[in-house]
Amino acid sequence: MREVYFIKQNKEKWLGIEQVIQGKIKKNPDDLSSLYINLINDLSFAQTYYPKSNTTVYLNHLSSQIFQKIYKTKRVEENRILYFFKTEVPLLVFQYRRYLMYAFLFFILFTSIGVLSAIYDKDFVNIILGESYVNETIENIKKGNAVGVYQSGSTWGSTIGIIFNNIGVGAKLFIYGVFGGVGTLYALLSNSVMLGSFQYFFYDYGALKESARGIWLHGVFEIFAMVVEAMCGLILGASILFPKTLSRFNSFKNGFKDSFKIFLSTIPFTICAGIIEGYITRHALKMPLALNLIIILGSLAVIGYYYFVYPSVVNKKINKHVHDAIL
To answer: Which regions span the lipid bilayer (predicted)?
Structure first.
């Protein structure tokens, strides 16, 4: 059978499956399984007769998505929250992984701008951080207590304030994506430049090591989550600018739904960062250096694995199930 005729014969069925995946058409688990088996037969035929065709790539992607929907329907009854963090979010992160790379590249670029600005303009840090904060921190550094600013206020009061502030920052990074992603980049620029100038400030006063022992106890979760939240804003912006075959509204709706789920996954990390900053960072310089490193590197390993490695693991697992079903 010629490929053109094969596509023409099955096009309506495949478009119908796309609507099921997008949630426009509701199907019970038995109907989903039937659609999946039918689609697997089409994929098997395409792999045999058109192995290097875009049709085969398309059907493989469609099969993966319908399998995920079936898997989700079965798993959601067991534990919806566990499924959300264990499977749904990692699959979305894998699907949009290039936006995570873009977010990190912009973060590195903007942070470098903050460092260079602080190097070449001695008043820049005062403008960005505020003179009162800078003067207070300089006094703390002279006293040998670079993280003294984190020791003010009650632990629980500071923690709650920090958590709500950081969630607010993350929400802006995400929501500002509605301006075609430009709003997200502006918010990321503001926060990254502040971080870069902030770190150079401690370096300039010879307290980079001491400050890092405290700042990055909570900073790993906080900053990494910030970049992921910027990723969400970029996904949202791209869904508006590049709707592809969908209407702009439907593309935006899908982009918002997917990016919002990824944004929600950052909340536990943001809460952990607030707790660490409120309760642990104030004791950073009194702690053994080994304990500082365990917390910092442990935090980096956890969040780095979840967003960089685990999505690929979950995707391979799903694809293996699809492959086994074909065989």
So the answer is: 99-120, 173-203, 215-242, 262-280, 289-308
